[in-house]
Design brief:
Blueprint: E1 2-7, E2 10-15, E3 19-23, E4 32-35, E5 38-43, E6 50-53, E7 61-82, E8 87-107, E9 110-113, H1 116-125, H2 145-162, H3 171-181
Antiparallel strand pairs: 1-2, 1-5, 3-8, 4-7, 5-6, 7-8, 8-9
Length: 182
């Protein structure tokens, strides 16, 4: 038995036991997700096939899944360039993705489920390539050098008014300065 569901603006063909990757869904790893937007349902057999086509959705059909991984997909690089104008821009984008294990398909009296042993086997073999969202590749700055100098000056003025010393340099800078003196 298989079905075609709609999620994230896309249509996906699923059967019980499949692991699919879709656009990010809310929920933690291990939580259950139910899809009510089932467009097509088929139960093929050797003699004949039962086919149910929704208009646009099948009213009593649903697909249940379990979230097995959350993360970001591969980076897609975009390059903008205008020839002879010295204009080049490179942008990167990583889409948030969710990987799901399809647990069951059901429509009225017909249903198809994955057994507990099959689920264990699938999850034991499962390996995700999604990477968790990490820290930014560079630290955020205030912008131009003039803005940084103005912020530094404002903090030293505020420190003088309050009667305390201005903020010292970081530990790495002070140890490097001490090493230079020695």
């Amino acid at each position: 038995m298989y079905a075609v569901i709609e999620t994230g603006g896309k249509q996906v063909r699923v059967t019980a036991g499949d692991i699919i990757q879709v656009e990010k869904l809310t929920g933690d790893v291990g939580s259950k997700v139910t899809f009510d937007k089932v467009l097509f349902l088929s139960n093929p057999s050797e003699t004949n096939s039962d086919v149910v086509l929704g208009q646009p959705y099948i009213s009593d059909a649903k697909v249940e899944a379990e979230i097995v991984a959350q993360g970001r997909g591969d980076k897609v690089m975009t390059v903008k360039m205008k020839r002879r104008k010295q204009y080049r821009r490179t942008l990167g984008h990583r889409q948030e993705q969710t990987q799901l294990l399809i647990m069951s398909l059901s429509a009225g009296s017909k249903s198809s489920e994955i057994s507990a042993t099959d689920k264990k086997v699938k999850l034991a073999k499962f390996f995700t390539l999604l990477k968790p969202k990490g820290a930014a590749s560079h630290t955020k700055t205030l912008g131009s050098g003039k803005k940084r100098q103005a912020a530094k000056k404002a903090s030293s003025i505020a420190a003088k008014k309050s009667g305390t010393k201005p903020a010292k340099a970081t530990a790495a800078k002070t140890t490097a300065a001490k090493a230079k003196k020695a």
